């Protein structure tokens, strides 16, 4: 063939191939991939704070492995349970559109994976990009069974913020218990009292030098280069604590939350609730020989609880020079007081959706169903004595509820299986109250009777219904913040305030233009928050407090979203290998 001549092919097959290549070259239209991971759940020996113990891990790692996908990919995770506990895994924040069988909460969408059994979670990532995470969803096993889930944008699609990060770093904030967390919650449920608190907070599983000599060797160190920008993919994986986060002498630019982009804003301190994620830019300072070789990264708790809590500060290192000394005497960044609700409110008010042409905020403007949920603690009477006492308030047992209903987990089957088979009797009742049975001054003097009801009660929704829920904190046994997580959905946070919600005045103040889109939101201490979503994902979806102690006490409910009329609006059959109860 003579040099410079080109072969031409005008057959249908060639034309199809040319069009396909052109489409794949366009940003965002590259073919989605199937990403496969294997989780071997085993017991591994881990030492922290001079304490060595055996803990559940995934693939022998604590925290567990990072999962990386792109928007539009299919993700398949094969789980093999090799420990003596039942286990399930939840892909926190993933929409699970028509893939509820892979959502993971035990007895809600599946029965647990028993010892020696396996199960493959199989789902697609649709319309999401940013940082999510995965964790066990059985009892308190997520204390060590967790890891990051990074969703990159499609190839060729840039981040909608600048500067582009030079490096991205997952940063899992957690809690370490010297005791077995399963024994901690088992003892609390036996006595009716509050559980023992954690012994340390951790950065990617490491507590840092503020605890004891052993912990000093277990310090997370982030090495940075002067002038470069780093995106911290921060996840609060702690069991029971909201956390303040700061880096000494460095500001932070928030660009994403719960796998949704936000209008960038700058803050010196973050507050992040269990279950929430934030994508944050940090730019290292220019080279300066007189500057310190390392700066402290610190976390400490935010809480208004009247009970005990882990009131410690954990420290990691931002290193400009490798091996820089980091001690407990290194200056810490200033953090708010542990109960600074005003700071939390001001920080939270910064979050706004991009609401751009590419990333619109599709906020429901009209509402089909309105609900009002009173969220808080409560009590059970001491009907059966444990070691001669019930250790809750005034000789009762701690409980928690929404609209005075404390959620009872089924045991004979999962709620999703019961719904798919339409076999509800003895499993659930579709009568969760749309409002508190007896209204009261929610943030004022508590009622005399603080006892709760118990039941597996769900709230049915028609397919594609637009929903508004006002989540109202109560002062029963003390007002405190409750991070509420909704499975299977994102929602828009259209309003928030302190005191009792007033529909006549507060609704007019809603933000229906660019409210933040999240999957986990904290109900403010002695306040309320309003969310909206479209019920476009058929299945059974739990909404619960992500403080695990409150979930253990029953602070949860479930939405039952019915099928739509079209084939692509219906719940598919369960996988053939789904575990049996």
TrEMBL record:
It comes from the Eukaryota. It catalyses: 4 hydroquinone + O2 = 4 benzosemiquinone + 2 H2O. Its main location: secreted. Lignin degradation and detoxification of lignin-derived products. Its cofactor is Cu cation. The keyword Repeat applies. InterPro entries: Cu-oxidase-like_N (IPR011707), Cu-oxidase_2nd (IPR001117), Cu-oxidase_C (IPR011706), Cu-oxidase_fam (IPR045087), Cu_oxidase_CS (IPR033138), Cu_oxidase_Cu_BS (IPR002355), Cupredoxin (IPR008972), CuRO_1_LCC (IPR034288). Binds 4 Cu cations per monomer. Gene3D superfamilies: Cupredoxins - blue copper proteins. PROSITE patterns: MULTICOPPER_OXIDASE1, MULTICOPPER_OXIDASE2. The keyword Signal applies. Residues 41-154, 168-321, 432-563 form the Plastocyanin-like domain. Pfam families: Cu-oxidase, Cu-oxidase_2, Cu-oxidase_3. One of its GO terms (molecular function) is metal ion binding. Its EC number is 1.10.3.2. NCBIfam families: laccase. Belongs to the multicopper oxidase family. GO terms for cellular component: apoplast. Keywords: Apoplast, Copper, Lignin degradation, Metal-binding, Oxidoreductase, Repeat, Secreted, Signal. PANTHER family: LACCASE-11-RELATED, MULTI-COPPER OXIDASE. One of its GO terms (biological process) is lignin catabolic process. This is Laccase. It is found in: Secreted, Extracellular space, Apoplast. Residues 1-32 form the signal peptide.
């Amino acid at each position: 063939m003579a040099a410079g001549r080109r072969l031409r092919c005008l057959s249908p097959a060639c034309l199809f191939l040319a069009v396909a290549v052109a489409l794949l070259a366009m940003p965002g239209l590259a073919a989605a991939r199937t990403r496969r991971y294997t989780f071997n759940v085993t017991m591994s020996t881990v030492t922290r704070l001079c304490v060595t113990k055996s803990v559940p891990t995934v693939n022998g790692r604590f925290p567990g492995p990072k999962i990386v996908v792109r928007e539009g990919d299919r993700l398949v995770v094969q789980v093999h349970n090799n420990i003596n506990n039942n286990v399930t895994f939840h892909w926190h924040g993933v929409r699970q559109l028509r893939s509820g069988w892979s959502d993971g909460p035990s007895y809600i969408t599946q029965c647990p994976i028993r010892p020696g059994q396996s199960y493959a979670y199989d789902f697609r990532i649709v319309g999401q990009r940013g940082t999510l995470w995965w964790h066990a969803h059985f009892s308190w096993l997520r204390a060590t069974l967790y890891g990051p889930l990074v969703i990159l944008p499609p190839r060729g699609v840039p981040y909608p913020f600048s500067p582009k990060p030079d490096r991205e770093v997952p940063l899992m904030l957690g809690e370490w218990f010297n005791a077995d967390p399963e024994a901690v919650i088992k003892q609390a449920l036996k006595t009716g009292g509050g559980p023992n608190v954690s012994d340390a907070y951790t950065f990617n599983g490491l507590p840092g030098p503020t605890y004891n000599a052993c912990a000093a060797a277990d310090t997370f160190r982030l090495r940075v280069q002067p002038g470069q920008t780093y995106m911290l993919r921060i996840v609060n994986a702690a069991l029971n604590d909201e956390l303040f986060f700061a880096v000494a002498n460095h500001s932070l630019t928030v660009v994403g939350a719960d796998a949704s982009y936000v209008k960038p804003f700058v803050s010196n301190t973050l507050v992040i609730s269990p279950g929430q994620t934030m994508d944050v830019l940090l730019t290292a300072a220019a080279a300066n020989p007189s500057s310190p070789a390392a700066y402290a990264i610190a976390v400490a708790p935010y809480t208004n609880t009247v009970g005990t809590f882990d009131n410690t500060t954990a420290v990691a290192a931002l290193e400009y020079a490798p091996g820089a000394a980091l001690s407990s005497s290194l200056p810490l960044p200033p953090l708010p007081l542990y109960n600074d609700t005003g700071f939390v409110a001001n920080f939270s008010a910064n979050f706004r959706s991009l609401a751009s042409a590419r990333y619109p905020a599709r906020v429901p403007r009209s509402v089909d169903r309105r609900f009002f949920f009173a969220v808080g603690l409560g009590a059970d009477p001491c009907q059966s004595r444990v070691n001669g006492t019930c250790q809750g308030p005034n000789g009762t047992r701690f409980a928690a509820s929404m609209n005075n209903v404390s959620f009872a987990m089924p045991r004979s089957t999962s709620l999703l299986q019961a719904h798919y088979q339409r076999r509800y009797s003895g499993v659930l009742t579709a009568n969760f109250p749309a409002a508190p049975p007896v209204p009261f001054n929610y943030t004022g003097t508590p009622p005399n009777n603080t006892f709760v009801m118990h039941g597996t009660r769900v709230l049915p929704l028609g397919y594609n219904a637009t929903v508004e829920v006002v989540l109202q904190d109560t002062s029963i046994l003390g007002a405190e913040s409750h991070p509420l997580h909704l499975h299977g959905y994102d929602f828009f946070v259209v309003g928030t305030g302190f005191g009792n919600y007033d529909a006549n005045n507060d609704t007019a103040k809603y933000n229906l233009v660019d409210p933040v889109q999240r999957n986990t939101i904290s109900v403010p201490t002695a306040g309320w928050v309003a969310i909206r979503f479209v019920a476009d994902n058929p299945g059974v979806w739990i909404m619960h407090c992500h403080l695990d102690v409150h979930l253990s006490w029953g602070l949860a409910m479930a939405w039952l979203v019915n099928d739509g009329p079209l084939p692509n609006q219906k719940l598919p059959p369960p996988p053939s290998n789904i575990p049996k109860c």
